[in-house]
UniProtKB/TrEMBL annotation, chains A, B:
Membrane protein topology class: Multi-pass membrane protein
CDD domains for the chain: CBS_pair_Mg_transporter (cd04606)
Full protein name: Magnesium transporter MgtE
Domain spans labelled CBS: 147-210, 211-267
Membrane-spanning residues: 293-314, 320-346, 367-388, 394-420, 432-455
Location in or out of the cell: Cell membrane; Membrane
Keyword Protein biosynthesis: no
């Protein structure tokens, strides 16, 4: 008999939100508690994200800190920040006590600096306080920023029986055990064990006899995205973190890595679409404008650059004014090819699956551009000449310009991200409006230069 | 003392590849084996991906099937397919014997149909053969296509001691235990237990007394991406899969879900960039052309559409020929705004974080467009009039057109993905060249219509 409690078919309906709002308004605490009791904390977080600030603060204060700590972790960051502003330092500290060190440090890091110290001083559990303070010192984009202090470790000198006894104590603080780390007496990481190995082993065995001496680990300063790549590549569900002396500091679990992967993918996607990182559809118009306007300005300057180029050639072309009709075709093609080329390179760099020399890759892109360009040019030539009645020589000009523009756009789209990556700059910035704009301008310039050469105006 | 074996600092160097090639050529089997022994199977797969087909087949045949099965799983799909074509059905079956059922089924599913039956009939382990055949029946994009048959399950009537005894046997086949599933005598899933709970419990307790009655599960026909969302939302590391009668069929682990998330993100990214799914930078020019040309053709037809519009107005505009210079500006802006709006909606839909009514969202986008449009229009007006010396009335026309085009592009970019999603079509197709092209054409049309109205030509 499966209870409803963690039913995965949870659906956030307007009725449910209205029901919660009504219970809050009428201060019907008992019924509210018993209603929310039936939901998973991630679901309650979704409900609270829909409520007014006052209402969600009310609900947070009503429920046990054991539940609300988990709810806060799952809430939208902006909403959580607002809720926390309405809680006292002592109330926040109570929530923090319930959280694992990594989540606790994440929440504290979001607070204004003066509140951080106040909240930390209100944490009663000394050990927890010390561990959180340690974690706060690490950059959030490093292994140290991802790791939790909660882990199960054993000394190589222990027996299996003694080990199981002590693990029973340690494991109470650890949500999921994954691996058991084996350390020497100086706390240096020397190997690992799985709970399974321990259960299968005989009680009187020494850990030193049964532990596995190969263990993957990362350094506390390693980049978070590198940690994600390592855990994915080697299919790890947890990885220990050590300092420069190989001392065991913490561990990172796969669920945190899933978030890193998702965030990285989201950020690259937004960059490619010309949106500065970290906005959501539900953010305010001001925040969305801040994220979108800079990229539109880049596009605008590109457009004005193109206007100057056209102006320049406009006076000269005389009878060939029809050339101007094909500017959008040239521009769209240059932009599309540039985005395609850069996206495939950025993705290859992100997945670490790109190999070979830059020259070989440019040659390949040029060839690819030639193939695509020939196809597009032929079709465009036939349509413009036979369907639109464009003069033969103009159609030829457009065709040759298309081929040149495609090859050029493909090469720019390939070169820029590789170049940025080699310089240590995130290649994803070179996608989207950035590449489209530069290709637009170059494309139009090439078009008119070719036209001038062929048509001799 | 950490051994080098699973050193995470593995780097694929040209020297290493050359060394392996040399050992293969000289048939120096012993040294080759002892060299590769030191690497993780995921690293060996990377090396093999760099070798010629003959060389990688040679290495695969040289090593034990225990290692090579894992290597094959990690290899690039195209390369793996080629290697498998060079192995006999019996050799493939030997690899399959070493793999978990989910990986085994994935590999068999890649084979041509006539070989599938041949390979399956060569699998000696009857149970394994039966389980793999069952898994092959499920669509790869469903929970059934992701799940493995390997899991640890216990009956509610067992005692803790008996349970531990039997788990020792079951667990040998299971790489990672995660959860222990509790079933009734009809194999219906009724709850779960963690290894930790079992270790902490007293030996004489009955499972029925200690198991947790709430358990998340998915149905075998559920969509793979939905399973990924559920596991992420509820931070699950494994989830059981049941049939319509609640019978336990298998389980899905988080490492498979990481792949689903990554693939989904990659696909959306490629769609936004105008590349059909599933290509990599290292694919052949033919494959890359097939993935890229269709989108370029869409862009080309858009460009030709724009050319017709310009042709139509060209004859009429007389003195206002300068309007044509600003076509690229209008087009770039329309394209950029459209991509921004659609990307943010597609991402919201993918993360399931989009709420509210379609009308409210369109209104918001219109407002946002107005804010961005006013900013862009003012700057463009100042630059064109004072810097370029464009006539005042033309600059005003361009400014008004920019505002209108931005608002329109934002609304189209918002509406189309939501509309597609409601129709059950993947909204990601509406990003990239698709949205850019339609916005280009509409944008240019709006521009000339507004110009005609204001300038009265």
């Amino acid at each position: 008999m499966i209870e409803e409690k963690e039913n995965i078919q949870f659906e956030l309906t307007d009725e449910l939100v209205a029901q919660v709002e009504h219970l809050v308004e009428t201060r019907n605490d008992e019924e509210l508690k018993s209603l929310l009791e039936d939901f998973h904390h991630a679901d309650i977080a979704e409900i609270l994200d829909e409520l007014d600030l006052d209402d969600s603060v009310y609900v947070i204060k009503l429920l046990d800190s054991e539940t609300t700590a988990d709810i806060l972790i799952e809430m939208d960051e902006d909403n959580r920040e607002k809720v926390l502003r309405n809680l006292s330092a002592k109330e926040i500290a109570e929530e923090i006590e319930e959280l694992d060190t990594d989540d606790a440090a994440d929440i504290i890091a979001e607070l204004p600096e003066e509140r951080q110290a106040e909240v930390i001083s209100n944490i009663e559990d000394k050990e927890h306080r010390k561990e959180i303070t340690e974690l706060l010192a690490y950059d959030e984009d490093t292994a140290g920023g991802l790791m939790a202090k909660e882990l199960v470790k054993v000394y190589e000198t222990w027996t299996v029986a003694g080990c199981l006894r002590r693990i029973r104590v340690q494991a109470k603080d650890v949500t999921r055990v994954h691996s058991i780390y084996v350390v020497d007496k100086k706390n240096k990481l020397i190997g690992r064990l799985s709970l399974k190995d321990l259960i299968v082993a005989k009680a009187e065995h020494k850990i030193a006899d049964i532990y596995i001496k190969t263990v993957d680990y990362v350094h506390v300063d390693d980049d978070a995205e590198d940690v994600a790549r390592i855990m994915q590549k080697y299919d790890l569900e947890a990885i220990p973190v050590v300092d420069s002396n190989q001392k065991l500091l913490g561990r990172i679990t796969i669920d945190d890595i899933v978030d890193v992967i998702r965030e990285e993918a989201d950020r690259d996607y937004q960059m490619a679409a010309g949106i500065s990182q970290g906005v959501e559809a539900d953010d305010s118009i001001l925040k969305l404008t801040r994220a979108r306007l800079p990229w539109l300005l880049i596009g605008m300057f590109g457009g004005l650059g193109a206007a100057s180029i056209i102006e320049y050639f406009n006076g000269e072309m005389g009878d060939f004014i029809v050339l101007l009709s094909f500017v959008p075709l040239i521009q769209a093609t240059a932009g599309n090819v540039g985005v395609q080329s850069s996206a495939i390179i950025v993705q290859g760099l992100a997945n670490d699956s790109l190999d070979g020399k830059i020259f070989k890759r440019l040659l390949k892109e040029a060839l690819l551009g030639l193939v695509n360009g020939l196809a597009i040019a032929c079709i465009a030539l036939v349509i413009t000449h036979f369907l639109f009645g464009t003069p033969y020589i103009v159609s030829i000009t457009v065709g040759i310009a298309l081929i040149s523009v495609i090859v050029m756009a493909a090469m720019i789209g390939t070169f820029i991200p590789i170049f940025l990556d080699k310089r240590g700059i995130d290649p994803a910035v070179a996608t989207g409006p950035f590449i489209t704009t530069s290709n637009d301008v170059f494309g139009i310039l090439i078009y008119f230069v070719i036209a001038k050469l062929i048509l001799q105006f």
